[in-house]
Protein backbone atom coordinates (compact mmCIF):
# COMPACT_ATOMS: atom_id res chain seq x y z
CA UNK A 1 0.00 0.00 0.00
CA UNK A 2 1.29 3.45 -0.91
CA UNK A 3 -0.02 6.61 0.74
CA UNK A 4 0.54 10.10 -0.57
CA UNK A 5 -0.63 13.53 0.55
CA UNK A 6 -0.94 16.40 -1.91
CA UNK A 7 0.27 19.25 0.27
CA UNK A 8 -0.89 21.79 -2.31
CA UNK A 9 -4.47 20.57 -1.80
CA UNK A 10 -4.42 19.85 1.96
CA UNK A 11 -6.29 22.40 4.06
CA UNK A 12 -5.33 20.94 7.45
CA UNK A 13 -8.79 19.69 8.42
CA UNK A 14 -7.15 16.85 10.37
CA UNK A 15 -9.70 14.18 9.50
CA UNK A 16 -6.93 11.78 8.49
CA UNK A 17 -5.13 12.14 11.83
CA UNK A 18 -8.41 11.63 13.68
CA UNK A 19 -9.32 8.58 11.61
CA UNK A 20 -5.90 6.83 11.49
CA UNK A 21 -3.67 8.38 14.18
CA UNK A 22 -1.15 5.53 13.87
CA UNK A 23 -0.38 6.63 10.28
CA UNK A 24 -1.15 10.37 9.99
CA UNK A 25 -0.27 13.44 12.03
CA UNK A 26 -0.26 17.18 11.47
CA UNK A 27 2.85 19.31 11.09
CA UNK A 28 3.55 22.56 12.93
CA UNK A 29 1.47 24.46 10.38
CA UNK A 30 -1.50 22.11 10.81
CA UNK A 31 -1.12 20.28 7.49
CA UNK A 32 -1.29 16.52 7.24
CA UNK A 33 1.80 14.38 7.05
CA UNK A 34 2.66 10.73 7.45
CA UNK A 35 4.34 9.47 10.55
CA UNK A 36 7.92 8.31 9.86
CA UNK A 37 8.08 5.00 8.00
CA UNK A 38 4.42 5.01 6.98
CA UNK A 39 4.59 6.12 3.32
CA UNK A 40 4.73 2.50 2.10
CA UNK A 41 3.32 -0.62 3.64
CA UNK A 42 1.06 0.95 6.25
CA UNK A 43 -1.11 -1.87 7.49
CA UNK A 44 -3.74 0.09 9.38
CA UNK A 45 -7.25 -0.89 8.22
CA UNK A 46 -8.26 2.75 8.69
CA UNK A 47 -5.90 4.19 6.06
CA UNK A 48 -8.42 3.96 3.22
CA UNK A 49 -11.12 5.42 5.46
CA UNK A 50 -8.79 8.33 6.28
CA UNK A 51 -8.40 8.98 2.56
CA UNK A 52 -12.16 9.01 2.12
CA UNK A 53 -12.57 11.29 5.16
CA UNK A 54 -10.37 14.00 3.66
CA UNK A 55 -12.77 16.80 2.67
CA UNK A 56 -10.59 17.96 -0.23
CA UNK A 57 -9.27 14.60 -1.49
CA UNK A 58 -5.63 15.36 -0.67
CA UNK A 59 -4.88 11.75 0.33
CA UNK A 60 -4.33 9.00 -2.21
CA UNK A 61 -4.05 5.35 -1.18
CA UNK A 62 -2.97 2.81 -3.80
CA UNK A 63 -2.08 -0.87 -3.67
CA UNK A 64 1.39 -2.06 -4.42
TrEMBL record:
Output the Pfam families linked to this UniProt entry: Fer4_15
Thylakoid as UniProt keyword:
no
4Fe-4S ferredoxin-type domain location: 1-29
Q: What domain of life does the UniProt record list for this protein's source?
A: Bacteria
Cofactors needed by this protein, per the record, are: [3Fe-4S] cluster
Q: Which UniProt keywords apply?
A: 3Fe-4S, Electron transport, Iron, Iron-sulfur, Metal-binding, Transport
Q: What does this protein do?
A: Ferredoxins are iron-sulfur proteins that transfer electrons in a wide variety of metabolic reactions.
What name does this protein carry? Ferredoxin
